[in-house]
Amino acid sequence: MLSPEELSRYSRNILLNEVKRSGQERLKNSIVTIVGAGGLGSPALLYLAAAGVGKIRVIDSDTVDTTNLQRQIIYKHSDIGQPKAIAAAKNASSLNPYISVEGIQARISRENASDLLKGSDLVLEGSDNFETKFLINDICIQEKIPYITAGVLRFEGMVMGIRPGEDACFRCIYEESPAPEHVPSCADAGVIGSMAGMIGTIQATESIQFLLNTEDSRSGLFGKILQVDSKSMEFRTIPICKREDCEACSLLIAKKLTV
Ligand SMILES: [Zn+2]
Question: How many independent structural domains does the chain possess?
């Protein structure tokens, strides 16, 4: 049930035929886990919190430093030195006290990932490394949790939605994690801060539409990859087919992990 204060707070959502009061209640009853409270996780968390997603968990092991503030807009200057997960949860809660935001200061690993992600209606992956991206992919497929993965570098970004069993997964495209020395990071190569904001905001928009789950609000990026080049402002959406011998989709990776 939504209180009078919540009905007022979310009135611009509720006005939409695709949302109404029932959709807003669905958002309130949703659990979303955000992996990585960085350039992508910051705007995604702010918009999901503002939209009234009832339970949000945010996982990150780092602390806030000066170089983060150019794009990680959930943090304030006064948060420098604080654990990101805790500062992000505190700032999202101060934006919307009618939801629950839990900050989990942990590095996600093969050992703890299932426990940390279990129970989520949706996972947002916005980490800065391929190892975590493959890990989230494998665990979400194994636990049958839909998830939206994204990446950003320099002036470019990508977003992809995956419903396990239905859509092609991250490993269908990339198969194996590239060696870290072959992959530039934002720390090495730079990134436009607002570009991370744009991609994280697309993740949030996709999430809200996915959680509403009505005929009119079908989200557009499941089974597809969106590539954005901000220099030319070209957005390309490409349908992705499952790879027949994908080890994640055929759950071979999960078997390997449990052997
Ligand atoms: Zn796959």
Answer: 1
pLDDT at 37 over 90: yes
Q: Which of 234, 191, 153, 206 is nearest to 44 (CA)?
A: 206
CA dist., res. 37 & res. 85, Å (int): 7
**Domain carrying residue 147:** 4-258
Per the annotation, the verdict on 246 as an active-site residue is no
pLDDT of 88 > 70? The answer is: yes
* 255 Cα: distance to centroid of ligand 1 (angstroms): 15
Evaluate whether 49 touches 56 at the Cβ level (below 8 Å): yes
Ligand 1 centroid – CA 149 distance (Å): 13
Angle, vertex CA 81, rays to CA 38 and CA 124, nearest 5? 20
Query: Looking at this protein, which amino acid is placed at residue 158?
Result: M
Overall average pLDDT of the 114-138 stretch: 96
Give the CATH number of the domain where residue 114 resides.
Answer: 3.40.50.720
Q: Which of 140, 169, 172, 186 is catalytic?
A: 186
CA-CA distance, 153 to 71, in Å (whole number)? 12
Residue 211 dihedral angles phi and psi, to the nearest 5°: -70, -35
